Fold this sequence. Notes:
The protein is mainly alpha-helical. It has helices at 2-18, 44-53, 56-60, 79-96, 101-110, 119-129, 136-147, 158-165, 176-199, 210-216, 220-235, 245-263, 266-269, 272-288, 295-304, 308-317, 321-332. Helix 4 packs parallel to helix 11 (220-235) and helix 14 crosses helix 16 (308-317).
Amino acid sequence: MEKSYNIRQTLEQREHMVLSPYASFSDCSKGRAREEEPCDIRPVFQRDRDRIIHSKAFRRLKDKTQVFLTPEGDHYRTRLTHTLEVCQIARSIARSLMLNEDLTEAIALGHDLGHTPFGHAGERALNRICSEGFEHHIQSIRVVEFLEKHGRGLNLSYEVLDGIKNHQTVGKPETLEGRIVQISDKIAYVNHDIDDAIRGGIIKAEDIPEKYTSVAGHSLRERLNSAIHNIIMNSFDKNYVAMTEEYQEVMNGLRSWLFSNVYTNPAAKGEEHKAESMIEQLFTYYTEHADEVPEEYHEYRIKRGESMERAICDYIAGMTDKYFVSTYTEIMIPKAWKY
């Protein structure tokens, strides 16, 4: 056992020898809400990464919408593939900047665990109908803090929780690793949404304004390569992670262009109002038939002194697209009468 215990210590010591002084070091973590015995072979952030990847919420991401609602075709992104792309970009940046890859990966893998079925359409619907509001980054924290493991949660480290909570643009992560995930999330979705929109015939590559492609690149590979290089060269051996101002303007411009040409395009988003209506209907149904919400969500609610609305949000947000449609059909769609 002593030999195994020294494996973790050796890995922690190696971080101090190899990583940047601006990195988050595993043996300097602020710890967990519930104290635990350290793992004998894995530093704290690697252990968190493993807990996330083995969670039920992570597996459900494979059947949750990223941007395009129930697309026909095998090559469109899902919430899971988006997460993996964010993780890949973030790890590339973290490694080159000599920051903590384990922490970066854990945050990236966990950042969207709280997303609803049907992506942001589902998030909008729950936020609109629930009097307490709903935001997916807050829901991600709820998932890892107590919804997983039958109400016990994953008991992740402070640094991972901080990165997940602050991954949105308005967030202010305390670690550079959290900042890497925050910026990698934007790089990933801007570029893979362009790629999916071209694949779906919503836009053509030549539609993207030249003032953006001349800087960022004309293909997915070129744009990812230029963005990652820009961040690394601008942030190396610095106590911050950021793009240059010029490149940030290009990214902001591409994102605005996507909103005008893809995210609000009827061809791509025309069915979303149906998904939102279905979620609102099911939410209302459960407020009137609370006994049909699974018992575990009642237990969580009572344990934390929370409202029935919040329990319903937890239940619906955890559904995959397919499970939601199946549940909605079972409850809302009349069945043929049989003699």
